[in-house]
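Schema walkthrough. Field components (list of strings):
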Amino acid sequence: MSTLAAAVYVYELPVRLWHGINALAIVVLALTGYLIAEPLASPAGEASEHFLMGYIRFAHFAAGYILAVGFVGRIYWAYAGNEHARQIFMPPVWKAHFWDGVWHELRWYAFLAKAPRHYIGHNPLAILAMHLFVWGLLFMIVTGLALYGEGAGQQSWQFALFTSWVLAAFGDSQTVHTWHHLAMWFIVCFVLIHVYVAVREEKLSGQSMLSTIATGWRTFKNNEPIDDAE
Amino acid sequence: MIETFYDVMRRQGITRRSFLKFCSLTAASLGLSPAFAPKIAHAMETKPRIPVLWLHGLECTCCSESFIRSGHPLAKDVILSMLSLDYDDTIMASAGHQAEAIVDEIVEKYKGNYILAVEGNPPLAEDGMYCIIGGKPFVEQLKYAAESCKAIISWGSCASWGCVQAAKPNPTRATPVHKVPGLADKPIIKVPGCPPIAEVMTAVVAYLLTFDKLPTLDKQGRPQMFYSQRIHDKCYRRPHFDAGQFVEQWDDEAARMGHCLYKMGCKGPTTYNACSTVKWNEGTSFPIQSGHGCIGCSEDGFWDKGSFYDRLTGINQLGIEANADVVGGTAAGIVTAGVAAHAGLTALNRAKQADKQPGAE
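Field assembly_structure (string):
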């Protein structure tokens, strides 16, 4: 048996940290966001004894800010970090080999290809999916801050930077709420697929997945040639 | 001799005392300091009266009904005499050709110097034949009057957004004033609401006439002083919202106790208007105070978003009745089923391969 390809350090600490914080923030945001649109049963007694909606909204806003700050930090790291840190922000859509990789990955998921190709970073289909997710995140951050600015008032920076033009672009506040809610479901769908394929690739492909996002190191289980996503 | 606002008011029998009271009231309702009251009085005494042309297109006259019921009788009397409503086909005395002649007269006499108030909107389909005023399509009268006006006030949700006559599929192509093609490029003040609050209407007219400039408008063209906050922000039931205490049914205990109407589809959190502060009918009440949620009547598109009693409103683009949870929940369900099926197929595939190659892996 030939020697296995050497392990590669792919995901630097800021990327792994972002991934973890994002995951937690998204769970909190999706749950509290759903409860804001469809509130829990009313507590009995005087209003002064309770602050249920207030706490749920606070958790939503706090997690939203963490997500937004993390996003800004991650954009910086795409510039400052290694080549893998910018992979999901700039898919090489102008390269034929990239699309060949996407096609192969699709065939692999359709049980038509015998084995997936090996990649050091993400596979091309994953790059596409995560790129779409990045836009989803950005949409949620922008509409989220716009909705927050409505409550914060016209003198707030959130209103000046986001609410003013987002409300005008969507026409009215209710439409912004509807799209913000709809995009939550898009992210839920992404998470479902993301977790499934990560576990599946860990088991079936020749490269490590779950341990890579925890430690940053990519290891290989066999000695297949390594493809370049580009 | 130029006729001033003050002259007109005195002629209408308004005393100087009432006139000064009105000036203070106007300053207060516009959010100005008391020092502005004498300035308003001075402007009224010296500036020539600006005539107002009040046109009616496709509408229900609820704006006029609201306007003439302006809570404060003082403000109403003064402003009605100030406007003296040179042309308003609902309440003016003349009729027929004489009435229509007034439009020509004002346009000629006060070229570039009158305010055009529009209630309702023009239907554009069939060259505007769905709304005929004095034998001509309303859209022609509107364009003609807009050509020489100083500024346009779009009264109500019809003129501002389109409202129910513009609801899908909008067979007459009812079109809000600012979207009418070929309309002269004049400043437009939108005063949405179905109808707008009477005090808001009178204050907007008073501002225009006394300061001779437009009030500060937001990005959607509404006066900021009345449309910068949501009903929800100043709602007296807001503490129940924060506590999470909601009316669940129209006849439950929470409804009697006056809890938050959010779960009953109240659009207060997405509606910019002054109802929860100015209120209606001399400050007597407003929809939420009388136990019904806000329907968002001053927001663009409120008539086309499904039930007034749902918090999540309909998504029309899909051609089916659905809200965000129906669409998103269905998508998440399909994805979950897809993932489960895919996982099953993967396991089956692996089992088959293991059978074919015993010993491998």
